[in-house]
Amino acid sequence: MVEKPLYEVIEDFVSLKRSIHTRRAYKGDITQFFNTLDLITLEDLAYLPFAQLINKVEQVLL
Q1: DSSP string covering 1-62, please?
Q2: Can you tell me the distance from the alpha carbon of 56 to that of 62, in angstroms, rounded to the nearest whole number?
Q3: What is the sign of the dihedral through the CA atoms of 42, 43, 44 and 46?
Q4: Residue range 8-38, pLDDT digits in tens
């Protein structure tokens, strides 16, 4: 199985949104969040410890 780069996954996701403003906002926010995790592919997310992911989410929310 070929690992799909995160930027392609994000593009696929935001392309489902109708509003260009929503697509732009989602893309920016999601990209910024995943960049803090230093992930290249969606599969990389599976190897990230859950506690570390929760910690990052909490940091973003504060």
Answers
A1: -PPPBHHHHHHHHHTT-S-HHHHHHHHHHHHHHHHHTT-SBHHHHHTS-HHHHHHHHHHHH-
A2: 10
A3: positive
A4: 999 999 999 999 999 999 999 999 988 888 8
Residues paired with 5 in a beta bridge: 41
Whole-number pLDDT of residue 27: 96
**Domain range annotation of the chain:** 6-61
First CA to last CA across the chain, in angstroms? 37
d(CA 62, CA 49) in angstroms, rounded, equals 21
